[in-house]
Amino acid sequence: MTRFTEGQTASCSKTITEADVVLYAGLSGDFNPIHIDKEYAKNTRFKERIAHGLLTSSLLSQLLGMYLPGKGSIYMEQTLRFTAPVYIGDTITATATVQEFIEEKNIIKLLTECRNQKGELVLMGSAVMLVPKEGEKV
User: Fold this and answer.
1) Which of 15, 44, 55, 85 could form a disulfide bond with 91, CB atoms 3.0-4.6 angstroms apart?
2) Res 134: pLDDT
3) What local confidence, expressed as pLDDT, does residue 138 receive?
4) What angle, rounded to 10 degrees, do the helices at 53-66 and 18-28 form?
5) Which DSSP helix (H) or strand (E) runs through 63?
6) Cα(71)–Cα(62) distance, rounded to whole angstroms?
7) Residue 1, pLDDT score
8) Residues 76, 62: Cα–Cα separation, whole Å
9) Which uninterrupted H or E stretch holds 116?
10) What is the DSSP letter of 103?
11) At residue 87, what are phi and psi to the nearest 5 degrees?
């Protein structure tokens, strides 16, 4: 029996806070005013500040590193397409769905998505992960 099956899913959620946006700006060096300046953001198409796209995508790192495929797995590839803005206060649910597991190479391919509390797709993509061999300590 294979460890991962096509269609297998896992999810995790997080509410994006003011602190998350400020800490991410400091960590990444991305101080684009669309993320950190309320007055600036009022005059944009979004009318308020939005979270950094890569802050949103960081939920995928938690999901893939801790849940599916999980501990000991290593990112090989990730594609991202941002489809809607994420606002401070939004609760984002990241979901990964197994598309293929190549057991002889210990590689798993997954569909990755993030949705807000309204169920709207805000990010979509795919990931390729190297997973530990069965029984291998991580």
Assistant:
1) 15
2) 76
3) 57
4) 90
5) helix 53-66
6) 10
7) 45
8) 15
9) none
10) G
11) -105, 155
Structure tokens at 136: 């291998």
Q: What are phi and psi of 78, to 5 degrees?
A: -150, 130
Structure tokens, 56: 């949103």
Residue with tokens 């990444």: 28
Q: Could you tell me where the beta strands, DSSP code E, fall in 32-82?
A: 74-82
Q: CB neighbours of 19 closer than 8 A, spacing ≥ 6?
A: none
Radius of gyration of the chain (CA): 17
Count Cα neighbours of 56 within 13 Å in the Cβ-side half-sphere. 30
Helix, strand, coil percent content, the chain, rounded in steps of 5: 25, 35, 40
Mapped onto helix, strand or coil, the DSSP state of residue 33 is helix
Beta carbons within 8 Å of 86's beta carbon, 6+ residues apart:
16, 50, 51, 53, 55, 56, 92, 114, 116, 122
- Answer yes or no: are the C-beta atoms of 124 and 78 closer than 8 Å: no
pLDDT per residue over 57-92, tens digit each?
Answer: 999 999 999 999 999 999 999 999 999 999 999 999
Residues of the chain falling short of pLDDT 50: 1
Give strand pairing partners of 10. Answer: 96
